[in-house]
Automatic annotation (TrEMBL):
GO terms for cellular component: cytosol. It holds the Pfam family SCP2. It comes from Pseudarcicella hirudinis. This is Putative sterol carrier protein. InterPro entries: SCP2_sterol-bd_dom, SCP2_sterol-bd_dom_sf. Residues 28-94 form the SCP2 domain.
């Protein structure tokens, strides 16, 4: 899946579920995917309540369930900065 396709997939999911009340940014090796508090998705480098640094391949794995988030954290495949509570809300989005 390309960066553009993944952005589109996250946009579709976010539009169906609405916002989380907090902003989240996925900082990937191919660009940023920013989800605003109200669920709007863009590829901007805005400041977020929670930033998750992850490769595009690993983000795909997290979204499909092929990669366990706790395992990814333990092996350094994903790094979270900012509000950890916001990161926990991602389970309800994906």
């Amino acid at each position: 899946m390309t960066f553009s396709e993944l952005t589109d997939k996250i946009t579709n999911i976010a539009s169906q579920k609405g916002g989380l009340g907090s902003s989240i940014k996925f900082d990937t090796d191919e660009g940023n995917i920013f989800i605003s508090q109200d669920g709007q998705v863009s590829n901007t480098d805005d400041t977020a309540d929670c930033t998750i640094k992850v490769s595009l391949k690993d983000l795909q794995g997290l979204m499909t369930g092929d990669l366990n988030p706790m395992t990814a954290m333990m092996f350094g495949k994903l790094k979270i900065s900012g509000d950890m509570g916001v990161a926990m809300k991602l389970q309800s989005l994906f």
